[in-house]
Amino acid sequence: MHLTEEELIATRIPSGPRISIVGIGGAGNNLLNQAIDAGASPSSCVAVNTDRGQLSKSPADNKVLLDGRTSLDKSEGLATFDYRRARQLSAHRVKPFTEGSDCTILLAGLGGETATEAAPAIAQYARTSVRPVISVVAIPFIHERERRFIALRGLKHMVDSCDSTIVIDNAMNNRVTSSDGLQADEKAALAVQTLTDIVSGIDNRFGPEALSIMSLGPIACLCAAPVLPGETVQSAVIRALETPSANLPLTKASGAILVHRGPASLGDGEAQQAYAALSSLIGRDIKFAHATVHSSSESTCLLLTGFDYGTAVRSFVSFIEDLYDIEYGQGLEGSIPELTVPLFQMERP
Questions:
Q1: At 56, is the secondary structure helix, strand, or coil?
Q2: Which run of H or E residues covers position 220?
Q3: Pick from 304, 306, 238, 305: which is nearest to 273 by CA?
Q4: pTM assigned to the model
Q5: Which residues are registered as beta bridge partners of 90?
Q6: Alpha-carbon distance 127 to 134, whole Å?
Q7: N or C: which end of the chain has fewer CB within 10 A?
């Protein structure tokens, strides 16, 4: 198949709010593939990349190729490529695929060249006062030290360009201690699924309320866990908090969005118990919303919102120091604070 710079496959007009999902760069396209595997419609997805071969293999219906433009170096009289400038200028090519959407979700892996440079520009083109842009970004593994610090600089541009940015930190995989823990790509796919449910799949009244909670701060993180047989949703929420997608201090959260999946709707009493546990752990009242997505399996997904960039950077740097200590055999006891829960919160009603 010959791939042109823009490729659009005509699709049906959706009946509800329309969401565009844009994967940018190699990692962003991998996250987009995960989202499609998890149920995102290929017709709503846009793959953006500088690699023509990778782009042609994407299952997304819509594709945009970002390539370098030839420019003339007057001092040398030679033709050169300014890839950074070209990627930023080429971001406007994505706009036709998102301008008809009610909400745009950007997927990017920060720390490289393509997404770190192009994703903020794409967000700026897509974002308006009535069309929010929410990004899901992956931070490199701890051993990718230089790329990790580049990613933190890129994160600043993302939070300036988006209404909210959900951070998926690959380094958190080091803390997965049970089969319940999701890997980074699974968390990213779940984040997209949850955002899609929030905007268009649950309730017309819930979407605006949830988006308002997400706008409390520029950075958010995802917590998820299955609801075990005989377990309360409250207990599942507490377990989910033990494996967040990023090492952000729980006490700095300003809001929470609980999406429960299961065969039965989440009752107001169960939701109130989950909120009581959250507010107790955070130490104050927070904005809270909850909804149910009917499913044969039961699980809970929590978006913690309201974190600022300064808090995120301090947490990431502290986390790097903790993991370095572990790498060299120091600070093994208590270097990463564990979640402690009062016994009364674990009691079943």
A1: helix
A2: strand 219-226
A3: 238
A4: 0.83
A5: none
A6: 9
A7: N
